[in-house]
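Lab notebook: predicted structure, single chain.

Context: the supervisor wants predicted structures on file for every construct in the current expression panel, including those that have not yet been purified. This is the next one on the list. No modifications to the sequence; it matches the entry in the shared construct table.
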Amino acid sequence: MGKLLIADDSAPLLEALEYILGRNGYEVKTLKSAAGIYKEIDEFHPDLLILDIFLGDEDGRNICRHIRDTIFNNQLRILLFSAFPKYLEGYQSYGADDFIEKPFELKGLIDKIQSILHWQLTTSVI
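Prediction complete. Output recorded below exactly as produced.
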C-alpha cells in the first residue's frame, strides 16, 4: 500500500500509529526526533512523511522546507500535523502536501493518507 515515515516526539502516539497503520497494510517506520530524518528518507524511501510541527527543538515546517529545497525526491509527499491549527496555516509555503489537526480520528488520518498516496500515483503516471 505504501511506505510511511512518521516523525513525532510522542512515543505512545508513534507506537499506536505504527501498529494501526501497519495493520492497514502500510510499511511504517517511526522517529522520535528530527535526528536521522534525512538518512531515514534516503535509506527507507518513504512514499509519505508524516511530520509533527513541534518535533522537540526542531520545527517540522522548517524540516519540510529543507527537504523540498535539498532532496531531489519529488515523489515524497509530506503531511504535517499539529495540535495547534494556527501553525498549520500556510503549510503549502513550506512545501507540505497537506495537513491534519491533532487530535485526529484514525479513519480521518487513513483517509487522508490514502488520498495523498492516490494523488501521488495519478500524478506520477501522467
